[in-house]
Amino acid sequence: MTQWRDDQPIFLQIRQRMIEMILNGAINEGDPLPSVRQVATDLSVNPLTVTKSYQSLVDMGTVEKRRGLGMYVTEGARAALLAHERDKFLKEDWPAIAARISALGLSAGDLLKDGDEK
Question: Which among 13, 14, 41, 64 could bridge 53 via Cys, Cβ 3.0 to 4.6 Å?
Fold first, then answer.
């Protein structure tokens, strides 16, 4: 059973899963996305939720609709998504991480140590 986070709409969480699949090569440029019905069944969500997540990928320009065939990853999607995810990380995630590092008094050396060293 899929665990959903309460801090973000489910359609955004599904979109993020698709982005991660494209970035890690599970879905390549030119490949079809899994069908809306299949994803909805696999994740036990409403097909409209999956459709909304796919539409947000279309809006980003990384997926295209092909009438009668489904949704396909566009050429250049991986590079565009990588740039998007890096920008999002630096603007949204990194400030909180940097603040936490500072609050804990950690140095760059502390962060770069091998996990076995303590």
Answer: 14
With cut-offs at 50, 70 and 90, classify the pLDDT of residue 109: confident
| Contact between residue 81 and residue 19 where contact means Cβ atoms under 8 Å apart | yes
Q: Name the nearest CA neighbour of 49 among 11, 4, 8.
A: 11
Distances (CA, A) of 2 to 13, 64, 66, 90: 11, 27, 29, 28
* Residue closest to 44 by CA, chosen among 10, 5, 69, 8: 10
Q: Which two tokens stand for residue 23?
A: 């970035």
The β-bridge partners of 71 are 65
User: What is the distance, to the nearest Å, from the Cα of residue 11 to the centroid of all Cα atoms in its chain?
Assistant: 11
- 89 and 53 in contact (C-beta within 8 Å)? no
Residues 6+ apart with CB under 8 A from 71: 32, 33, 54, 57, 58, 63, 64, 65
CATH class, range 10-112? mainly alpha
pTM of the model as a whole: 0.80
